[in-house]
Design brief:
This protein has 17 helices and 20 strands. The chain has a nine-stranded mixed beta sheet. It is globular.
Length: 488
């Protein structure tokens, strides 16, 4: 069977492994889990982020600071003896791989974590894979060489010769096309890359673009690119990857992929407008139901919809589950969330009060503070029926706007006081996300359209019987039925 190699800068496999930052990594993990369930012959490739994304600390005013995350790699991954090398700034950097065995309903799927922390590398080079989305442009580009070029070399060294597709989950791994081009030329006994090599690489590459936000597309100064990569094959294809004097890895992926997709029907339209002249399809993101369904609902589905774990489409029969059973499952999930809020937030919420949840990456376009835009109106709404709000979400360490948005929520919380209790939980991760999406009464999502590519947290809420109140953007354009699945 032909193998699919799935490359992603971040992958969320276990909340105790801080190898993901947010939606992109969680989506990657769900994709790999779905492949393991359905028997797709796939292998995952990512980087080993020893210091993680970061641990978030919020002070009394909502000011965010960051700390590295320490975790024991050996508790989750098995080191492999094979080594490969990449060239960075003219230096040879050695890379090893650690293997994670992802167990699914149809077997075990291997995920390989690339690691430059080896004694034979310099002290600086040993840290190149440590931090997810850390460092400066040079650091990030070095990481992407290790992921893309090093990833292909590692797969070959591990014996993966029959890979039929290389799937790039966002543009971070798109330098893999350079390695594939050189492989094609070497196999033909040539030093120069030909048109036939380009066509062969396009045939085996797939690219998923995830964001209409410019910051989501990696761009590097040409001087940095030449310093890190040297005068290799990249600069033979300047028209395909240099945009406005910058190395643009999204355009590299677009130009060397035979198939490109956005992550929702609306996002496909937006992407075709952004990247005129490219054929960009749309495959709406999904989530892995067993991962995101609360224990109470898992037990309910096991009893009334047997087989849902292997056939998630059978969950359409959830419409026939007695409402009392749904309510009992929901109240159990809500009690567990409220216990977590008390433990971590120090606030005792009332389980009988209508609870709104909002947990997203704290980026300004996601507008986490939109609910607090008119506090007097919010007070009037709460006077007709009490409500409480639970927030979570990290801002990127260099995103001052995102950090300011968190502080504005804290200020609003103080002004609202007991009339509308508001809690902001630290360190949003997969475990907390599962509690939030199952334990609140309403899932809120307020992005600035059309900047929400997909936004799958509302799908996780839906698996747990929680409706959404969301801006009509991303997947919600397709999932929204007014007064049925939620509200626009």
């Amino acid at each position: 069977m032909a193998v699919v190699a799935y490359f992603s800068m971040e992958v969320g496999l276990d909340p105790r492994m801080p190898t993901y930052a947010g939606g992109l990594g969680v989506l990657a993990g769900d994709t790999l889990r779905a492949a393991a369930d359905s028997g797709v012959d796939m292998v995952g490739v990512t980087l080993l982020h020893r210091r993680g994304y970061f641990r978030q600390k919020l002070d009394a005013g909502g000011r965010q600071t960051e700390e590295p995350v320490d975790w024991r790699v050996e508790d989750f991954l098995a080191e492999l003896p094979k080594r490969v090398a990449v060239t960075l700034e003219g230096r040879t950097v050695r890379v090893r791989a650690w293997k994670y065995e992802l167990e699914g309903a149809s077997g075990v799927l291997p995920v390989y974590f690339l690691d430059a922390d080896l004694a034979e590398n310099s002290d600086a080079d040993r840290t190149l894979t440590h931090y997810l989305y850390g460092g400066d442009a040079r650091y990030r580009l070095c990481q992407e060489v290790i992921l893309g070029i090093g990833g292909v070399r590692m797969l070959r060294t591990l014996g993966y010769s029959g890979i039929s597709r290389f799937h790039m989950n966002e543009g971070h791994s798109s330098l893999l096309v350079l390695e594939l081009l050189e492989e094609q030329a070497r196999a033909a006994g040539r030093q120069a890359i030909s048109r036939e090599d380009v066509l062969a690489v396009r045939k085996c590459c797939v690219f998923t673009t995830h964001t209409p936000v410019p910051s989501g597309h990696d761009r590097f100064p040409i001087e940095t690119a030449r310093a890190v990569l040297g005068d290799g094959p990249l600069f033979t294809f300047e028209k395909q990857c240099l945009v406005e004097g910058l190395l643009n890895l999204t355009f590299l992926a677009l130009n060397f992929s035979g198939y490109v997709n956005g992550v929702a029907m609306k996002h496909g339209e937006v992407s075709r407008e952004m990247f005129g002249g490219y054929a960009i399809d749309a495959i709406t993101n999904g989530v892995h139901p067993p991962t995101w369904t609360a224990d109470e609902f898992q037990a309910l589905f096991d009893r009334l919809i047997p087989g849902w774990r292997r056939d998630p489409f059978s969950l359409r029969y959830a419409l026939s589950i007695p409402r009392a059973d749904v309510w009992n499952a929901h109240t159990g999930a809500k009690r567990r969330l409220i216990a977590r809020v008390l433990r971590d937030g120090g606030t005792e919420l009332n389980p009988d009060v209508f609870t709104i949840g909002f947990a997203r990456r704290a980026a300004t376009y996601k507008r986490a503070d939109l609910l607090m835009h008119d506090l007097e109106r919010l007070r009037r709404i709460a006077a007709t029926g009490p409500l409480q709000v639970v927030y979570a979400g990290k801002a990127h360490p260099r995103d001052e706007g995102g950090k300011a948005m968190i502080e504005s929520i804290f200020r609003a919380r103080n002004l609202l006081g007991s009339r509308v209790p508001v809690v902001y939980l630290q360190n949003h991760d997969m475990e907390l996300s599962r509690l939030l999406t199952s334990g609140v009464d309403l899932w809120l999502n307020t992005p600035q359209p059309p900047l929400e590519a997909s936004g799958t947290s509302g799908m996780k809420a839906a698996l747990n019987g929680v409706p959404s109140l969301s801006v009509l953007d991303g997947w919600w354009v397709e999932g929204h039925l007014e007064h049925v699945t939620g509200w626009a």
